[in-house]
């Protein structure tokens, strides 16, 4: 219950000095630049405590949306992996934290797609893994979005 | 009659009136206590805390103190109790589904943790209403036992996406638009109080505000969009976005949306993007988002401290 105005003012006057300064939250800098790529899907790996966002260029989105038929050259996929951390403002929610690494897969006119990884924080992905990582990245199904802006204008 | 006598009589009369008014004020019922239909269940420490710190407003066991009956106080108290009960009533707990009960418990924890509940003005006067660190820890431990496990495997068949450009409009006047797909991702979250995962997008005004630390308050024109899916787990234990649930909007306009703390709220459900709720729904969105007042009403900002 609240209380009479006078009592309220009195409490504010005596209480305000004692009130702790609210800690100002420091927001993580946004290190990854999507450069116009769009989100294909999101993958959470609870064992590793990570969450990844898969981005793609238009050719990559087309491959996904057309049902994984044939690759075209110049598809570009980027899998951006973050450590998961507690959401400071809601117990019950995990949020992406520190950026760990960005893996890039590009398809070519002929031969194997190229793979490379850029590390930011955390453990490095072993160099023997490129083929397996490439397969993993290319196999990820797209998340369902209720609208595909470029699909409705370019494809239908 | 001498002047002094007149004053005496007048004073006496005034005195009687004052006593009468004060007595009336003190005996006036501030609020009724309707019957308890079913009480919240929780471990003793948590339940005692709720009874001590929350029941005066969020139950049918309101205990009115003498100073709550003073003329101006009484009307404020009445308003608070009536509003609080309407939002959340720990003694009509049986009227909620199991899922609603649990989600109110998570919300209650987060409201206390954010310093929003019990109402600070109330806590200042009712010294025993403060929630201790130990009680909060016990509450958290209790919620840990309520973690929701994801069992859905990857099998969702997606219905076709919306192909119209005649997008639905919510009661708050906010219209759905696929434009957010071109915005920057603000964050992504995974919930343990339910089985959903989310991706948040921020429009360029919102993104600029974040980068410049100008989010208290957020600038007009800032928009945050959240997309929500059920989680699905694959054979290796990775979680993927499965069934699409809804898209939610927060649109900043301090003046237009003053009654909901400057944010306009909208929610579009299912692949057909059906607008959800009424104008009242936006009030309940805003109530809960008060728990994020440290960051201007927005929860999902990755912090480094």
UniProtKB/TrEMBL annotation, chain A:
Highest taxon in the source lineage: Bacteria
Name of protein: Uncharacterized protein
Species of the source: Chitinophaga skermanii
TrEMBL record, chain B:
Protein name: Cytochrome P460
This protein's UniProt keywords: Signal
One Pfam family here: Haem_bd
SMART domains named among the record's database cross-references: Haem_bd
Domain of life of the source: Bacteria
CDD domains, per the entry: cyt_P460_Mc-like (cd20753)
Gene3D superfamilies: Cytochrome P460 (3.50.70.20)
Signal peptide location: 1-25
Domain annotation Haem-binding: ranges: 15-147
């Amino acid at each position: 219950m609240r209380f009479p105005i006078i009592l309220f003012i009195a409490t504010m006057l005596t209480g305000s000095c004692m009130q702790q300064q609210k800690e100002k939250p420091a927001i993580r800098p946004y290190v990854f630049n999507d450069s116009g790529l769009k989100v294909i899907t999101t993958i959470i790996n609870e064992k590793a405590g990570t969450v990844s966002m898969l981005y793609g260029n238009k050719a990559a989105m087309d491959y996904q949306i057309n049902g994984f038929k044939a690759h075209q050259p110049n598809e570009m996929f980027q899998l951006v992996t973050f450590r998961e951390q507690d959401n400071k403002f809601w117990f019950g929610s995990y949020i992406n934290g520190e950026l760990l690494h960005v893996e890039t897969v590009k398809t070519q006119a002929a031969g194997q797609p190229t793979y490379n990884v850029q590390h930011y924080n955390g453990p490095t992905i072993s160099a023997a893994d490129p083929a397996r990582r490439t397969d993993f990245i290319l196999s990820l199904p797209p998340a369902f979005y209720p609208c595909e802006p470029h699909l409705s204008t370019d494809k239908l | 009659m001498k002047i002094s006598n007149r004053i005496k009589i007048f004073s006496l009369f005034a005195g009687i009136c004052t006593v009468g008014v004060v007595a009336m004020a003190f005996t006036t019922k501030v609020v009724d206590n309707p019957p308890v239909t079913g009480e919240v269940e929780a471990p003793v420490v948590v339940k005692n805390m709720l009874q001590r710190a929350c029941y005066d407003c969020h139950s049918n066991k309101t205990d009115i103190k003498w100073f709550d009956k003073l003329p101006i106080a009484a009307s404020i108290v009445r308003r608070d109790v009536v509003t609080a009960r309407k939002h959340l009533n720990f003694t009509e707990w049986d009227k909620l589904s199991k899922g609603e009960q649990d989600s109110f418990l998570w919300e209650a924890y987060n409201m206390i943790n954010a310093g929003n509940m019990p109402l600070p003005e109330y806590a200042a006067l009712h010294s025993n209403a403060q929630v201790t660190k130990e009680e909060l820890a016990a509450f958290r431990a209790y919620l840990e036992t309520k973690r929701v496990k994801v069992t859905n495997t990857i099998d969702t068949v997606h219905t076709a996406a919306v192909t119209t450009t005649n997008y639905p409009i919510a009661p708050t006047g906010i219209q759905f638009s696929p434009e957010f797909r071109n915005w920057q991702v603000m964050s992504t979250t995974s919930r343990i109080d339910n089985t959903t995962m989310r991706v948040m997008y921020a429009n360029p005004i919102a993104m600029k505000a974040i980068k410049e630390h100008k989010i208290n308050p957020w600038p007009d024109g800032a928009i945050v969009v959240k997309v929500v899916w059920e989680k699905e787990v694959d054979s290796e234990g990775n979680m993927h976005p499965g069934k699409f649930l809804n898209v939610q909007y927060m649109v900043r306009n301090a003046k237009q949306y003053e009654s909901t703390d400057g944010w306009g709220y909208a929610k579009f459900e299912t692949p057909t993007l059906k607008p959800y709720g009424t104008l009242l729904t936006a009030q309940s969105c805003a109530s809960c988002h008060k728990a994020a007042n440290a960051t201007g009403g927005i929860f999902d900002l990755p912090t480094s401290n």
